[in-house]
Design goal:
single chain; eight-stranded antiparallel beta sheet; globular
Length: about 350
């Protein structure tokens, strides 16, 4: 029997996702009356975009999907000169001791002709099977796709875990156990670990901590620590208490958020938000990194990096270029597959 084909447009609320370690794709089609399964899509800042909950009673495995968008890209790319000006302003604030850390992001625009986003998404899943890969459309807010290496929180009937991830470097030609980290990356990691520990303590949640250790994500390495607990929690409530953490905003949080909004020339929207499936027995939420907004004529890639007083702005620019290749290579490979060139 032939599979049913689902034709989606800008007016449809849906998400396709693939879990780390799996190339199987699940489709959630929104149904107001459903209650069995949910998919949570939370923005970077809630007052700018509302939280979206996609509800369904049937998660469709490996669906046949077509998607078309009529939206054209009106966003502006962040030029290198504009980025460097923003970076110098942010860096001077850090060197003055007003903040310990801040995250600066930028937008990179890549033109695309006749994009087949379902094919691109399949290529993303095939290329990054260890990442959480998603493709969603929220009517009125837009279409997004990404491959996140970062777990915000996972919970089940045995308890939950959350991850502190920071520091980035290109994959060298050595085993991950021999990767060396500088003081800047070690400090970034320590800030996030201290923050998560404080938030869990505030909620009187007991935990064990392992790490930090070197973790590979696509073409880069990160430092990673894992908090684990056997306590039963409301996973979204705990996620909201951790979000937006220092890994995506800076530290102290409130001052970092105010600085980001005064310096960055774009809204982050869903970039650095969190998303993932939620049910009565298991919830898996991921930070929305390595992501892009989809248009009929272009994609807008969102990339960023963490600054401390020890950061070098030129190095951070190169880091954002490196991160953007995670998605740019997939777009190129999917086009070659489809067009045979």
């Amino acid at each position: 029997m032939a599979k049913e084909k689902y034709n989606f447009s800008d007016d449809d609320l849906f998400v396709m996702c693939s879990m780390p370690g799996s190339r199987s794709i699940d489709l959630y089609r929104h149904d107001d009356n459903a209650s069995q399964h949910e998919f949570v899509i939370h923005p970077f800042i809630r007052h700018q975009i509302p939280t979206t909950i996609i509800k369904t009673d049937q998660v469709i495995a490996d669906p046949e999907v077509e998607f078309s968008t009529s939206r054209t890209c009106t966003l502006s790319a962040t030029s290198q000169s504009a980025y460097m000006q923003q970076a110098r302003e942010l860096h001077s604030t850090l060197q003055a001791g007003k903040l310990r850390k801040a995250i600066l992001s930028r937008i990179k625009i890549e033109s695309v002709e006749r994009p087949n986003y379902v094919n691109i998404y399949q290529q993303l899943v095939d290329t990054y099977p260890k990442a959480f890969c998603y493709f969603f459309n929220v009517p009125g807010e837009g279409s997004w796709m990404g491959a996140s290496p970062e777990v915000l929180l996972e919970s089940n009937r045995s308890g939950f875990s959350t991850v502190a991830l920071a520091g980035t470097q290109a994959v060298p030609d050595v085993h991950h156990d021999t990767v060396e980290w500088g003081q800047k990356e070690i400090e970034e990691q320590a800030i996030i670990v201290d923050y998560v520990a404080a938030k869990l303590t505030e909620k009187e949640i007991s935990y064990t901590l392992s790490g930090p250790k070197t973790s590979k994500a696509g073409n880069v390495y990160h430092l990673k620590s894992v908090f684990s607990s056997t306590e039963q929690i409301d996973p979204v409530d705990v996620a909201l208490s951790l979000h937006p953490g220092p890994a995506i905003s800076g530290y102290p949080i409130d001052q970092a958020l105010a600085l980001i909004q005064s310096i960055e020339s774009h809204d982050r929207d869903y970039y650095c938000g969190f998303l993932g499936p939620r049910s009565s027995h298991r919830t898996r939420l991921f930070i929305n990194l390595r992501c892009m907004q989809l248009y009929s004529d272009a994609v807008a890639l969102y990339v960023g990096g963490g600054y401390t007083a020890a950061s070098v702005p030129e190095d951070e620019w190169r880091e954002t270029e490196l991160k953007s290749k995670t998605l740019l290579q997939v777009i190129e490979d999917a086009h070659i597959t489809a067009d045979g060139i």
